Fold each of these.
Amino acid sequence: MIEALILRTWPIHEADQIVSFFTRDQGKLKGVAKSAAKSRKRFGGALEPMTYVLASYVEKPRQELVRLDACEIVASPLSEPVDYGRAAALEFYVEVLEETLQDHDPQDAVFRLTLAVLEQTRAGRIWLPVTYFGLWMVRLMGWMPEIVRCTACGRAFGSEPAYFEAQHDGLVCVEHRHPAARVLSAESLGVAARMFREPVAALAEEEWPRNRAADLRRFALQGLERHLERKLRSVQALNQLS
Ligand SMILES: [Zn+2]
């Protein structure tokens, strides 16, 4: 049995389903779950997106799809009531993982990050785990620019805010900002530094209303979208939450 996170499922003929899942040891895989829609015994409730499972599957030579035989739930997002906000957060994790991970490319740090934010999401938090996940995914994909000093002149931001743009990587100081640049407050730069230093659980004792570090979240999500070269649907859903 292999640790895995379910990403998405698609129905195919009869009661079979195609399952995209992120394994700890082998990275993202796609498989066929035979009679998944009928067999409660082998898959009952385990194929919901972002369910943490122990999966048993068989790889077949020269075939892209593995045969997924059974999944046992370790932790399910459905173990707590899922409101619209949490559904949007779960969809965000799924979409980012689907878009960033390559098949058969193990990413243990991403796996651990996802488990940690799922735990916070199950506990009813949204903005802390979403911001933490977005920021860390930019970093783990190797897309995070320097956050301590201006990429144009090298001056440290210190207690000054930084500026960023949708089209470019990097943060700049007030002197090198472009007219369309958005501000990233000194406070949010401090939040970013803490997020890179501390586990998400260490930040969970604090209040995380939607507007806290909203500029940092925008910076991270814009970085993801720029590198993926597409808009993320789930980001729109998150932006519509009140
Ligand atoms: Zn500068």
Amino acid sequence: MERAVELALIDRVLAQTAADTRELAAAMTRRPVSDYLDPDRYAAERSALFGHHPVVVGHVAQLPAPGSWFTHDHTPVPLLVTRDHEGRIGAFANVCRHRGARLCDQSEGQGRRLTCPFHGWSYDLGGSLVGILHGEGFDGLDRATHGLVPVPVAERHGFIFVRPSVGGALIDLDSVLVGLDADLGVQRPEGHLLALRQWDVPCNWKVLLDNFLEMYHVPVLHSGNIGPMFEPNRSLYDEFGPNGRRIDPRRSIRRLAGQPREQWRLRDHALVTYHLFPNVQTFWTQDYLSWLSVWPVAVDRTVCTQHIVADWQPDTDELRRHLETNLDLFDQTLGEDFATSAGVQQGLRSGALTEVLFARYEQGAARVHTAIDATLDRWRRGEPADAWA
Ligand code: FES
Ligand SMILES: [Fe+2]
């Protein structure tokens, strides 16, 4: 984030705290309950947003060296993401070219070859077929055209984006990030994956996303843990195409009003968060980057993953305790979010409501629904799902 932007954001927060106001969108919005229940809409969202739109599936910290790989199972095409021996990142369907077995069955690994557990075909980390057991049985097979099936992949600011679509168009990250480069570039942490966790939540993926995209609930639902740390419901929201930047000020930010501007540091007094459309919400704290991803796996079931990466490792008792304290806090707050989201799904299914409401200060949650609608409209017209810029 540029320094002038950082100062302008702090000015906006302090203007609100001084006047005891909050920034408001022009109007509240309503969404039909059917958005969260309709199996046809769910199928369209999964295909358009998770099959054809680029999604963040991981971070370069998960590919620390040539020969590193990880798998990802929450998109319609099961994925294998690799770093080959020249250091290049590749993404492939995690499907053996012989008869379709799952090639890599672990979540991550490291090696010179990937060998299929069914009949032993092997591939290098660039996806080329390099070994067939008893190869004389496949006389005439053109090995050069029987490597792993690639899908488009691109990396920027450490995030690995994949378009999980065989034969899909290359990813244009300028179009996907729509002006967020200046913010994301400066704040990139190097290095280490501190945590990668996963939960299964019985709700529609957008119920959970709505929760992550607003701070209205924080002083109420999280009153026993993080609630009291934050200025109640006084976040700033700015749109970057379908993406969003939300600044969640801590109460300590009021102290800056009496300090010289040169000493103002936003991250000392606020969570700096970005929604990377469609399904990722990132949080930059003072000392690590974390992001939550929501992956629809059924109309009423969602896998939530959390990554934490940092430029330090928990290699002392103090740093281990620091990490554990942070993970405990995430466990408490996410436990409350997951339980509430499961209850919301039951409430929506009950037939009691026909629509749900988003307040004028829940801009991020309201915005994602219009961006999803726009994506579905383009996809139904046969246009690229990610033609944002
Ligand atoms: S399916 Fe992989 S070697 Fe047969
Ligand atoms: Fe929450």
